[in-house]
Specification:
The structure holds two protein chains of two kinds. Chain A is of the alpha/beta class. Chain A contains ten helices and 26 strands. Chain A is 24% helix and 26% strand. The chains are: A alpha/beta, B alpha/beta. Chains A and B meet through strand 6 and strand 12 of A and helix 8 of B.
C-alpha cells in the first residue's frame, strides 16, 4: 500500500522541514516543520480528531483552509483552534475537547496582569487589503505601484491563498499568466509588489470591519486596530457542503482540502476517491489525484451536463475515470470514517430515482459543489448585500470599480462573486487601481481600460455565461443603490 | 391587509407581539400588528436576553417579579420552547457606596418576597468560576433571575396571537398616523391605510417619531448599546454577572457562547446601530479584567441595538393626554424584554377595561410633566 506521504510527483517536489514531535491526546507523534497540525495528523493516519458535542459523531477536517469549524481542537490549552491553518510547532499539545472547548485553568502568575496595553494600539495606513491570495496580492501590486502605503494581511502563515495548490496551467493570455502554473504565479506577483510601500502581515485575522474603515485584527492572540483610508476585501470563498446521510463523516472533504493536502503538503487524502461535481474544480482535482497516484473511482454530477472545460474532462476520461451526469450522492457509509458511498441517478427535479442506487467502495468523498463568497465583514461594515445565485449567494453590492455601497470599501476576487483565479487577479488589480486613484494617486487610465477589457474577454463564451449573468444582475443591483 | 381594525399595534418586538396575544386571549381579536421589518428585528432581537428582578425601584422590581412568574409559564401556555432558564444574577459591589445602595435594594426586594441575598467574594467565584473578585467587597445574588431567547419568546407570542386571529404584517412601515377631533382615526402604512380607534406605540427607539405624528413629544432618547459574543466553550456558569462600576454585564449562553455588553457613557443619542471598534476594544479590556481566562476565547460576533431611554429609566405605559386612543408601551431603557410578560398583561387589562392587578399610574407619561420621577439606579 502506498504511503500517505508522497515522495514522487510529476510536477511538485516536496521539501519537508525538519522532523518535529508533538502530542495528540497524550500520544507522541512526528510531523514536519512547515506543516499544519491537521496535515501532520493526517500524515500520521489520524482522521478523527474529536467527537461532536451533542451526538458524539466523529469529526475530522472538511475545508482545510480555516473557513469551516470542523477541525477545532484544544492546542496548548487554547480551545477551538483551527488546526488546519495552525502551523505545527515542536512540543505542541493537541487535545480533543471534552464536549465543547474548555477554558484554560487560571494561571496565578499572569491572571491579574492581563490584558497588555497593546489592546489600545491602532495602526494607520492608506490601503488595507484583507487576504493575500490572487486578488489581494494583485491589488497590492497596483496600490504599491501607484505609491499608496499598503498593508496586506492574511490569516494563513504564508501568502498566495488558493494559488499555492493550483498545479494546473492557467488559460487566457500572457497577461493572465497563461501556461503558468498557479503555484508559480505567487512569486511573480510578489516580485511586482513594491516592498518599500507594502507590509504583509501573516497569521493575522480580521475579526471586525467597521463603517469608519477601521479593522479589528487578531494576530497571535493580540488584538489591534488598523485604520485605513481604503479597504480592499479579498477574503476569498468557502467550500459548499452538500446534505446527504452521514455527510459529516471524516473522509468527506472539500475539493480545496484535497488540493491542500496533496499539493501543499504532499499527502494523499485516501486511496479511492468519489468526486462529487464535474465543474472545473472537480475535474482538475480529479486529475491532480490521478497525478498523485490516487484512484478516482468516478466523478458524478447532478446536472445533465459537465460544467467544466471539456479539455479537463477529456484528460480524466482518457485515464479511465467515468463521469456520470444526472447523478448525486445519497449516503456515506462507515462508522468512524468514510468506507463507502451510495450514488443514484436524479430526475429533472434533482430527486434521486428509486432503484438506481449503486454502492461504491471509497474512503474519500470529495465535494466540489461550488463555493460561497466570504463577505461577512463587509456586511458588518454596513455594505448592502444582495443574493445572486450565479455569483455564489450573498454578495456585497458593488459598482464597476468594485467599490461597495460604503465609500472607500472595495471587494475583489471570489469575495465579490465566485469565478476563478484569473478573474480574481484582474479584479484585484482593478480594485487596487481604483482605490489608489481615489486616494489621489496618479492613475493610468489605459491600464484600467486594459483590465476591464481582459475581464470582459475572460467572461465571454459559453463558460463565462454564469459570471456574465451574475455580473449583469450585480450591475442592476448597483443601479438600485445609486452606484 | 385589513382596512379597519379595533386596534393596531406598531412594532413586532416582544412588547407588540406579547400585547397582541394578551388582547386576543381576552377576546379582543380584531388586532393588527405592523412591523417595519421582521419579528424581533429591533431592540428585542438585539438585547442580551437577561431577566432580572433586582432593581432599585419598587415599580421595576414588582413588574420583573411578576414577569419571571409569567416567563415560567410561557412555554406551556404558548406551546413553544423559549429557552427560559433561571441561572441567577450576580451583582458585584466594589465601593462602600454601592454596598449601601445594595443594602437598601435588597431590603426592599426581600420585603417584596424576592429570593435575593448578599454573598461574599468567595461564593461569587463558586457561582461564576474564573471570576476576578479582586476589589469585590460583596455581591447580591438572586438565583431565580435568569434568561430566555428573545427571538423565541417573540415568535411564541406572535404565533399564539395569530392562532387567535391577530394579523401580523411584516415589512410594513408606518408612514403617518391620522387624528380626527383629538382622537386616533387611522394609521397609514407603506401598504395602505387602516382605520382604527386605537393605536399602541410599541416601536422602541422609533416610538418618538411615531408619537410626533400626532403631536406628542415623548421624553425618550434613542441610544446605541452594543453587545458581543464569543465562540462556544463548554458551559461553566449559568449566572448573569453585573458590575455597575464597570458598566458591564455578561453571561454564558446555553450553547456556550459568552455574551457581554457595557453601557458607554460617551454614546451620543441617535439611531446609529452599527458596531464599533471602540466597543470591541473596550469590551475586551473590561471582560479580561473581570474574567481573565477568557483571553483564549475568540469573539465571533458583535452587534448594536437601541435603548429607548427615559429620564428615570422606567417605561412609559398607558394613554397620553391630548390624543385619545393612543397607548404607549415604550421607554424601557434597555429592559423591555425582561419586563414584557407582565407589562403586556397589564396593558391588555387596561385596554379591555379590566381592573389592573398591579398599578401602573406612576409609569404614566404625565410623571415627566409633574416632575415626580425617581430614577432606577440599577441600569447598565
Amino acid at each position: 500500500m502506498a504511503e500517505i506521504r508522497l515522495t514522487e510527483h510529476p510536477i511538485l517536489q516536496f521539501k519537508r522541514g525538519r522532523k518535529i514531535s508533538f502530542t495528540f491526546n497524550g500520544k507522541k507523534l512526528d510531523g514536519h516543520e512547515g506543516e499544519t497540525v491537521a496535515a501532520a495528523l493526517h500524515a500520521a493516519g489520524v482522521t478523527t480528531y474529536r467527537r461532536s458535542p451533542q451526538l458524539h459523531r466523529p469529526r475530522g477536517f472538511f475545508c482545510a483552509i480555516g473557513k469551516c469549524s470542523s477541525c477545532l481542537m484544544t492546542v496548548d490549552g487554547v480551545p477551538n483552534v483551527r488546526i488546519c491553518i495552525t502551523p505545527l510547532r515542536e512540543g505542541m499539545k493537541v487535545c480533543s475537547p471534552k464536549g465543547k472547548g474548555q477554558l484554560p485553568e487560571d494561571d496565578p502568575a499572569t491572571i491579574w496582569t492581563w490584558p497588555g496595553q497593546y489592546v489600545d494600539k491602532i495602526l494607520e495606513t492608506e490601503v488595507a487589503i484583507i487576504g493575500a491570495g490572487p486578488a489581494g496580492l494583485s491589488a497590492a501590486v497596483e496600490t504599491t505601484r501607484m505609491g499608496a502605503e499598503t498593508v496586506v494581511f492574511d490569516e494563513n502563515d504564508g501568502i498566495g491563498g488558493q494559488l499555492i495548490k493550483q498545479t494546473h496551467m492557467f488559460f487566457g493570455s500572457k497577461e493572465q499568466h497563461a501556461k503558468v502554473r498557479g503555484i508559480d504565479i505567487v512569486p511573480l506577483l510578489l516580485e511586482q509588489i513594491d516592498d518599500s510601500r507594502a507590509q504583509i502581515m501573516l497569521e493575522a485575522t480580521a475579526i471586525g470591519l467597521y463603517a469608519d474603515k477601521t479593522l479589528g485584527v487578531v494576530r497571535r492572540q493580540e488584538l489591534f486596530g488598523l485604520r485605513a483610508q481604503k479597504i480592499i476585501m479579498a477574503s476569498g470563498a468557502s467550500e459548499n457542503m452538500l446534505a446527504f446521510e452521514h455527510c459529516d463523516l471524516p473522509g468527506v472533504y472539500g475539493a480545496g482540502a484535497v488540493q491542500t493536502l496533496m499539493n501543499v503538503y504532499g499527502l494523499i487524502p485516501g486511496r479511492r476517491v468519489l468526486m462529487v461535481g464535474a465543474g472545473n474544480i472537480g475535474l482538475i482535482v480529479s486529475y491532480q489525484l490521478l497525478q498523485a497516484g490516487v484512484e478516482v473511482v468516478e466523478v458524478i454530477e447532478a446536472a445533465p451536463y459537465i460544467g467544466g472545460y471539456h479539455v479537463h474532462a477529456a484528460k480524466i476520461r482518457r485515464a479511465g475515470v467515468p463521469i456520470h451526469t444526472c447523478h448525486t450522492i445519497t449516503k456515506a457509509s462507515g462508522q468512524e470514517k468514510v468506507e463507502g458511498a451510495v450514488v443514484a441517478q436524479v430526475d429533472s427535479h434533482w430527486q434521486p430515482i428509486p432503484n438506481t442506487q449503486r454502492e461504491l467502495a471509497v474512503d474519500v468523498i470529495c465535494l466540489a459543489v461550488g463555493l460561497s463568497p466570504t463577505a461577512e465583514l463587509l456586511f458588518q461594515a454596513g455594505c448592502q448585500s444582495c443574493y445572486i445565485p450565479e455569483l455564489g449567494g450573498h454578495v456585497a453590492v458593488h459598482d464597476e470599480n468594485l467599490e461597495t455601497t460604503v465609500k472607500g470599501i472595495y471587494v475583489a476576487g471570489d469575495a465579490s462573486g465566485i469565478e476563478e483565479a484569473s478573474t480574481a487577479m484582474l479584479e484585484g488589480r482593478l480594485a487596487g487601481l481604483c482605490a489608489a486613484e481615489s486616494l489621489g494617486k496618479k492613475a493610468i487610465s489605459e491600464r484600467k481600460e486594459e483590465i476591464l477589457s481582459q475581464l470582459k474577454e475572460l467572461r465571454t463564451g459559453p463558460f463565462g455565461e454564469k459570471a456574465r449573468k451574475g455580473k449583469e444582475m450585480m450591475r442592476q443591483e448597483a443601479c438600485r443603490y445609486g452606484l | 391587509m385589513k382596512r379597519r381594525a379595533d386596534a393596531v399595534i406598531i412594532g413586532g418586538g416582544v412588547s407588540g407581539c406579547g400585547l397582541a396575544y394578551c388582547l386576543a386571549k381576552r377576546g379582543f381579536k380584531d388586532v393588527v400588528v405592523l412591523e417595519r421589518e421582521y419579528l424581533a428585528s429591533g431592540a428585542t432581537g438585539r438585547c442580551g436576553g437577561g431577566i432580572r428582578q433586582q432593581w432599585s425601584t419598587e415599580e421595576n422590581t414588582k413588574l420583573a417579579m411578576e414577569s419571571v412568574r409569567l416567563f415560567g409559564q410561557l412555554d406551556e401556555e404558548l406551546e413553544y420552547e423559549t429557552e427560559f432558564e433561571q441561572g441567577g444574577y450576580l451583582i458585584l459591589a466594589y465601593t462602600d457606596q454601592e454596598v449601601e445602595q445594595y443594602k437598601k435594594n435588597v431590603a426592599m426586594q426581600q420585603k417584596l418576597g424576592l429570593d435575593v441575598r448578599f454573598i461574599d467574594p468567595k461564593e461569587a467565584r463558586e457561582i461564576a468560576p474564573h471570576l476576578n473578585t479582586e476589589g469585590v467587597l460583596c455581591a447580591t445574588y438572586c438565583p431565580s433571575d435568569g434568561s430566555a431567547n428573545p427571538f423565541y419568546v417573540t415568535q411564541a407570542y406572535a404565533e399564539a396571537a395569530k392562532c387567535l386571529g391577530v394579523q401580523i404584517e411584516l415589512y410594513t412601515p408606518v408612514t403617518n398616523i391620522e387624528k380626527r377631533g383629538g382622537r386616533i382615526a387611522s394609521v397609514v402604512t407603506s401598504r395602505g391605510k387602516i382605520e382604527t380607534p386605537l393605536i399602541v406605540n410599541a416601536a422602541g427607539g422609533d416610538s418618538v417619531s411615531l408619537a410626533k405624528m400626532v403631536g406628542v413629544e415623548l421624553p425618550i432618547v434613542p441610544t446605541r448599546h452594543e453587545i458581543m459574543v464569543t465562540e462556544q466553550v463548554e458551559p461553566f456558569f449559568t449566572t448573569m454577572v453585573i458590575s455597575f462600576k464597570h458598566g458591564v454585564y455578561f453571561r454564558q449562553e446555553k450553547r456556550g457562547g459568552i455574551l457581554m455588553g457595557y453601557g458607554d457613557p460617551d454614546e451620543r443619542p441617535g439611531f446609529d446601530i452599527t458596531s464599533s471598534m471602540k466597543f470591541l476594544r473596550t469590551m475586551s479590556r473590561k471582560i479580561l479584567n473581570l474574567m481573565p481566562a477568557l483571553h483564549r476565547v475568540k469573539v465571533v460576533r458583535q452587534w448594536g441595538g437601541l435603548y429607548d431611554t427615559t429620564p428615570d429609566a422606567l417605561p412609559i405605559l398607558g394613554p397620553v393626554d391630548g390624543v385619545e386612543g393612543f397607548i404607549q408601551i415604550n421607554g424601557f431603557s434597555g429592559h423591555g424584554f425582561m419586563l414584557a410578560p407582565k407589562v403586556v398583561d397589564l396593558l391588555a387589562q387596561l385596554i379591555t377595561g379590566e381592573e389592573l392587578d398591579l398599578p401602573i399610574d406612576r409609569l404614566h407619561m404625565d410623571r415627566f410633566l409633574t416632575g415626580e420621577i425617581s430614577r432606577d439606579l440599577s441600569v447598565v
